[in-house]
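Supplementary Note 3. Input sequence used for the single-chain structure prediction.
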Amino acid sequence: MQKLIWLALGIFLLSSCEKTSNNCTAIRNAKAHSTSPVAVGQTLKIWTDEIDGTTYSWTGPFNFTSQYNADSITDAKAINSGWYYLHVNSLDNDCSKTDSVYVEVTLQQGTAPCTIANNNIMFSNLPDYSFTTVTKHIESTYSLKALTSSTWGSDLAIYFSPYWRDHEPQDGIYTTYNSPAFDPVDPILNRVTITCINSSIYFSSWPDQQVYVSHENGKLRVQFCSLNMSGSNGTSYTTIADGNFIETP
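The predicted structure, written as discrete structure tokens, is reproduced below.
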């Protein structure tokens, strides 16, 4: 009988060791994965293989957290780009693993549906303008990266949302905002505001219209078509504009 007890105890201990060993081996091999790159508006998925007897902890950009081995972010935005950190821990706390994966959320790409000569803007019901010099700089009034230009009778400014102040704007489709005073907690980074003075009237873009940002020989280009704008000089006005602007040397 005593031999049987010792045999049973040995089998139990061996089984326990094997279970812990197998659990820890799987944990040590755990990897963080993602479906990166994904485009803005798509679903971003992150995951690691499921392991019995473990807990999971994810942290990432824009205060992302998760306690699952697999999770997703629907309608991903550029602000969701960055490092995602995974911590896998055995429930008996005898082993753990930390891993990470870099995720890139890219802007949707597209081509402007109208053709306008460089550094020109055309209006539906106002004079058109051509500009000689277009400058990319940090505009002082709002401390934003902008393309700006002036000519007799008109000033133009294309303001990028605050994130791009310290980054070169990515190529892709942006959406308009109606003021250079951007919402500071807006998670949508690919926003621009377009303003223009025409006939002594200050016009600003309506929100949620498409603008096409690209680069040519390293120079920033912004194009827009059928852009609704509104302005006032005591009387309210609306107009529709097509434009194509690229920074000049």
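Residues 215 and 245 are 11 Å apart (CA to CA). The longest helix spans residues 2-28.
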